[in-house]
Design goal:
5 helices, two-stranded antiparallel ribbon, single chain, globular, about 170 residues
Length: about 170
Amino acid sequence: MSVRARFRATLTFGFTTLCYSCSLPSPSPGVGDQAPDMEALTLAGDTVALGSFQGEPVLLNLWATWCWPCREETPYLQTLHETYSERGLRVVGVSQDGRDSGSAIQAFIEEFGVTYTVLADPEMIATDRYGVIGLPATFLVDREGTIRQVVMGVATPESPTFESVLRSIIQ
């Protein structure tokens, strides 16, 4: 085999290997799509599958302790939890902080008086599965597991559609 032929074969093999080893990110799920399932950890270290909340309306919030906009929106999420939990809403905050952040997460919970479900996702699997590139991100998921609203950025009471959709999923 000539040098030129070996070079082409090597180049072709290398390019093909590179293409197959690279994976494109999953498309972001949107309104009307099923919420992707994944597992996260309780602060006690137990594993919880997000799919275990199916049958309940869920406000899923991806956040981190170091995220200033997340700190801004947390009191609103706590208010939503206090207002709608008796009507069945499950507020689930999934921290995207890295490993060994348990004490930072606990301090955040105490600082903001958070009483809704908080899970840890140190591998940031949720950001991958939900196609999130910035925090915070909030997904309203109905009882059947269908995403009904997506907010990339801070969820606020000033958004008329957000609370309207939230009320519709808890009926």
